[in-house]
Amino acid sequence: MIKLHIKNRHLCLADILVCFMSYAMILALIVSASAEFHHVFLKALPLIVTSTFIFVFVLLLAHLYQVDWLYAGVKEHFTLLLSCFLASTVSFLLNIFVFKVLHFKITLAALFSASALICFIRYAVRLVCKLQTASFVGDGTRILVVGAGNLAVTLLRSIAENDRLHYTVVGLVDDNPQKARQRIYGAHVLGTRNDIVRICEEKKVEEIVFAICNLPSKDKTEILDICSSTGKKVKVVHGMEQLLLGSDPLKRIRELDIEDLLDRDPIVLDNQLIQQDIFGKVVLVTGGGGSIGSELCRQIIKYRPEHLIILDVYENTTYELQNDLEEKFPSQKISVLIASVRDQKRMEQIFDHYRPEIVFHAAAHKHVPLMEYSPGEAIKNNVFGTYNTALCAKKYGARRFVMISTDKAVNPTNVMGATKRMCEMIVESFEDTCETDFVAVRFGNVLGSNGSVIPRFKKQIAAGGPVTVTDPEITRFFMTIPEAAQLVLQAAAYAKGGEIFVLDMGKPVKIYDLARKMIHLSGLKPDVDIPIQFTGLRPGEKLYEEILMAEEGLEKTAHSKIFVGKQVKISTETLNEKLRALEKVSDESAEKIKEILASVVPTYRYRK
After folding, report:
1. Which has the closest alpha carbon to 360: 424, 429, 430, 292?
2. Least packed by Cβ within 10 Å: which of 28, 282, 305, 336?
3. Which of these, 113, 116, 108, lies nearest to 91 by C-alpha position?
4. C-alpha pair distances (Å), 340 with each of 273, 386, 485
């Protein structure tokens, strides 16, 4: 039984009415006498009823009474025209060969009139709704849309058809000269990227919405820099792939993040290779509740491991991660363990029980200034935590051990970097002693991670300033958390053992420029609304970071953003000597620890 929606039931009644009216109007125009009109109309009534039934029946078969005509597309309109043509044809043939009551010209005119009115009713519904919506839109937030392509058109259509949104589109900008002065859903293309500042002033723009997909990262960064410099709120619409999945573009609008202003091309992964590497395996992630560790877990679980084990010493973020993953992947086997990598006995129990095949070791103390004042903790957690985990991976037959390293391990000037370089030595030493593949993946700062400058800048801006930068010339390499995690998985899939993978971090970013951009993103002006102060380099801090040591050279991999540093071999005996030296002084004074650390890590540039 076919059920009609209440508003489409009204359409059905309207269709019945217009079919009768069409025959009545045509007959009234041809037959002038009232008595004769009634006689002809009654004689033709069986044909009129049959024709009306045919129209309604064909429209029902075509599911056109289930269409919301406010949002109907080309397919629905074409189906409507085709259905009216089919119903008219059948009705005409019935009159010619069965009923034989009306002249064929009269029948054609009536059927054409009925089809036209049925279509007009649906177009009228859409027109009236649009006019009602337009009466609300005029007083809405004034927005400028950047882009005039498919994504922007989809966005404008959604705004035009959504009567709950109070947006006024003052215009669009697009660099394509062929689109200059074009009109899209009532909005003109007013200029190019170079006109954005002028248009914002002239048109009193309140928000800018960036709606371009498949744009080179350099151009995207430049345009978003211009947008953020206007001091207006800037929002970004996610790409067309989200819309193809059925997502409403209005729900894909988000605030502009600092990540959008990085000149970085999107990461392309060899998902098949990663799938082969992880699918059906038991995978352990240490430091799983941290910034990198948690994102690694989110990426790993997509490739359906047999069992994902999340290990961390901190409860809160680990518990949140557990809830998030269990909600999104209810059928996935997940174990969450609270443990310290410093506790060798506990680590042995875990490895003995779960027998992980792949280990991602992300547990570490990473905060540079804090580790300068607590170097013993950096050694215990970073060096011996890595040693304990690697030793368990070797003893219990893990297939691969992946250690997360940092660019600060290259010619380190701080304790954190020196301990991570020591961790790399452990990886290089272990490789030749067992069948487990030991590798390290080295990358720079991660935007938004715990301890990064981004959260600190946000808090300082929210407090009214000042924003503190250590030095006007200080630079850092940056990548997003998802980028880093994805490239770690890709590098791990390439691993053969003993490698130090180096990720392409792109161009170094000046921290001073980063601070200015973040102030702009907040709708404020640097040095006017929010002052920027220089505080001087902190203990152990470099002005510039490096990604490679002098003795290392880079070799290409199958991925354009992943390279391999040449192995710097270290014997087991040498490693053990270095570990014993560090163990003896791990509870000594900070100066003593740094002195011994410099002796076991030759590239550590220790300043007394």
Report:
1. 292
2. 28
3. 108
4. 32, 11, 22
Contact by Cβ (8 Å): 171, 197: no
For 138-256, which CATH class?
A: alpha beta
Model pTM?
Answer: 0.66
- Worst-scoring range by mean pLDDT, 65-74, 186-195, 282-291, 595-604? 65-74
Q: What does the pLDDT read at residue 549?
A: 47
* 220, 233, 380, 408: the active-site residue: 408
**Nearest alpha-carbon partner for 504 in 167, 177, 245, 262:** 262
Average pLDDT (457-481) is 86
Place of tokens 């993953």: 325
Which stretch of 71-80, 205-214, 392-401 has the lowest confidence by average pLDDT? 71-80
Q: What is the pLDDT averaged over residues 404-426?
A: 91
Domain 271-446+479-505+546-600 in the same topology as domain 138-256:
yes
DSSP letter string, 516-552: HHHHHHTT--BTTTB-EEE--PPTT--SS--S--TT-
Chain segment 117-134, per-residue pLDDT in tens: 888 888 877 676 665 554
Q: Is 204 a catalytic residue?
A: no
d(CA 553, CA 496): 18
Closest by CA to 540, choosing from 424, 391, 379, 373, is: 373
Q: Does domain 271-446+479-505+546-600 have CATH number 3.40.50.300?
A: no
CB proximity list for 100: less than 8 A, separation 6 or greater:
none
